[in-house]
Design a protein that fits this description.
Layout lengths: L1 H19 L11 H6 L7 H6 L19 H14 L3 H26 L5 H11 L4 H5 L4 H23 L3 H12 L8 H7 L6 H12 L2 H12 L12 H17 L11 H5 L1 H20 L7 H4 L7 H4 L20 H16 L3 H22 L6 H11 L4 H14 L2 H14 L9 H14 L3 H13 L4 H17 L3 H14 L3 H13 L3 H13 L4 H19 L1
Helix pairs in contact: 1-5, 1-6, 5-6, 5-8, 6-18, 6-19, 8-9, 10-11, 13-15, 18-19, 20-21, 21-22, 21-23, 22-23, 23-24, 23-25, 24-25, 25-26, 26-27, 27-28, 27-29, 28-29
């Protein structure tokens, strides 16, 4: 038996590396740029710890997301020291994390089922689940990988404490790291409560006390860093049917993950409301059946508590995420799907249905592994992802805006304008995120670059009159500064930059401000702005070059 356990343990990482090795040739994409490539907080340890109590995304990126995930950012900072800005090292870490999570799931299941094929089979299905492509191949999808790793370790050491009365402090440490990786780790507490039904209500509440004692400090720091209370919008009755349809989407993602791409188009819930409502009801019915026949599904039954990790994405108006529904959000709940199908096959096997049971598992292993391999290339690099997704989902305005931005970067401004106009025409009144303001800001920028300054200025003025958020106002004042600079009004441009700085400061804004101050003869102020930009993470080489130019200009003005 030891030999078999050793073979099972070695086979899982071997299969993982054979499957995922191509990822080492992939690049950065999407959120990887603000979080890793252009994140000044990662440039030095002093900057990292100075900005520890700041949101996951630096101002002015993704203001609707109130995330605080310092453990995830710490992993990026450590990797920058290991292999620099090269993406292969970050992808290697994601491969190692998913492999480690598969092994941890195997070890956890072995504690409950020391004998038989269930631990290895369920762990293999978890390894191959198609919903994991985004978590593994996209570096920024790491939050779920880290949360799973730390929660699994926390549970392992909690089980060790239950058996031998040791390891509680280590369990608490890993729970804390999970919280600092992703907020959904909070839902580990009701999961822990449900995992020990034999203890009785009082003992299960006592079991939670050490973990609950950590929450006041965590919630206080989270509020201080990410203004968590700002997202308390309350729930409406209209959210209930939406939550049911969202649940239907996750039934499909978890149990029937035959998605043509590693993305769930939100328009599906609007176009096919009845289909996803019925899927949600089917999911509820399946849960009730598992509860009814819990003796036949002894691990799937307690595994139902993993569905708690999906709760935040069922009520996106109450707890904003983007996108509201995504395959990667199913990562923490996906062991449930693996357990359900494994125990279903074992149930059939015990009743003499050996060939159907074997064919079911063979079909799942082959189809899930194939789908995962087909999904991975979507994440090869930023251009591949945006172009492939915009072609596959031509009515998704978010992809059209991203593609428009890419075309503008390449210099094809007319094509960029056509794309952003198409996105604005398609942009629906979404119950989740309104992309139209972001699209109109992009449109104004393109119009200005095209030389249609009057139209661009009108767009900017309309957006400013509509009471923009600080992040939107920041971008709009930058656009007005560009307009005034084009007209030769340096003082006016500088005033707009000052207004933008009151809303939020970034190294790029302060560098631009220093350059304007240099042009209008305010050398002392320019040096102060440059010093402030350096403190916020501006590249020291750029800062030194600008400092030399400012000092040379001041000397020439004196002469």
């Amino acid at each position: 038996m030891k030999k078999r356990a050793l073979l099972e343990t070695l086979s899982l990482p071997l299969l993982s590396f054979l499957l995922l090795l191509p990822l080492l040739g992939y690049g950065f994409l999407s959120d990887d740029f603000p979080l890793i490539v252009a994140n000044p907080r990662l440039q030095s340890w002093s900057l990292f710890f100075q900005n520890l109590l700041t949101p996951f995304f630096s101002f002015p990126t993704n203001p609707q997301l109130h995330y605080w995930r310092p453990a995830t950012l710490l992993s990026y900072a450590l990797e920058l020291r290991l292999w620099g800005i090269s993406p292969w090292g970050f992808h290697l870490t994601n491969i190692l994390l998913h492999t480690a999570n598969t092994l941890l799931l195997y070890l956890l299941l072995k504690r409950f089922r020391p004998e038989g094929p269930l631990p290895w089979t369920a762990s293999l299905l978890f390894l191959l689940h198609p919903a994991h492509g985004e978590n593994i191949a996209w570096i920024s999808g790491r939050t779920d990988l880290l949360a799973f790793l730390f929660l699994a370790l926390s549970l392992l050491f909690r089980l060790e404490y239950e058996e031998r009365k040791r390891g509680l402090s280590i369990s608490l440490l890993f729970f804390t790291l999970a919280l600092l990786s992703k907020e959904a780790a909070l839902l580990f507490l009701p999961l822990l409560f449900l995992l020990f039904p034999s203890k009785g209500l009082k003992n299960r509440l006592l079991l939670l006390l050490p973990y609950l004692s950590l929450l006041p400090l965590y919630l206080f720091l989270h509020q201080k860093a990410a203004s968590t209370l700002a997202l308390n919008r309350g729930l409406l009755w209209a959210d209930i049917p939406l939550a049911l349809r969202s649940a239907g989407a996750y039934v499909r993602i978890l149990l029937f993950p035959n998605l043509p791409a590693p993305y769930f188009p939100m328009g599906e819930l609007t176009v096919h409301p009845l289909l996803y409502t019925l899927s949600g009801l089917c999911g509820i019915s399946l849960i009730l059946l598992i509860i009814r026949f819990r003796r036949e599904f002894p691990l799937t039954f307690p595994g139902l508590s993993l569905l708690l990790f999906l709760l935040p994405s069922l009520f996106p108006r109450f707890l904003p995420t983007w996108p509201p529904i995504a395959p990667r959000f199913a990562y923490l709940a996906s062991p449930l799907a693996a357990l359900f199908f494994t125990e279903l096959a074992l149930w059939a096997f015990k009743r003499g249905l050996r060939i159907p049971a074997f064919l079911l598992l063979l079909f799942l292993i082959f189809s899930w592994g194939t789908l995962l391999r087909l999904h991975l290339p979507f994440f090869r690099d930023d251009d591949t992802y945006i172009r492939t997704m915009s072609l596959r989902y031509p009515d998704e305005e978010s992809f059209l805006f991203q593609l428009s931005f890419k075309e503008a970067q390449r210099g094809d401004l007319r094509k960029a304008l056509l794309l952003v106009d198409k996105g604005l025409a398609l942009s629906p009144s979404s119950p989740w995120v309104d992309f139209s303001r972001k699209g109109r800001t992009l449109r104004a920028n393109i119009l200005i670059l095209l030389g249609r300054e009057a139209e661009g200025e009108q767009e900017v003025e309309r957006l400013l009159r509509a009471t923009p958020s600080p992040e939107e106002g920041y971008s709009l004042h930058l656009l007005r500064a560009i307009l005034l600079e084009r007209r030769g009004d340096g003082e006016g441009a500088l005033e707009e930059l000052t207004l933008a700085g009151r809303l939020g400061k970034t190294p790029e804004l302060l560098l631009r401000t220093a350059r304007f101050q240099k042009r209008v003869g305010r050398g002392e102020e320019a040096l102060r702005s440059l010093e402030e930009a350096l403190n916020l993470g501006l590249d020291p080489k750029i800062a030194e070059r600008e400092r030399v130019e400012i000092q040379n200009r001041r000397e020439s003005e004196r002469e």
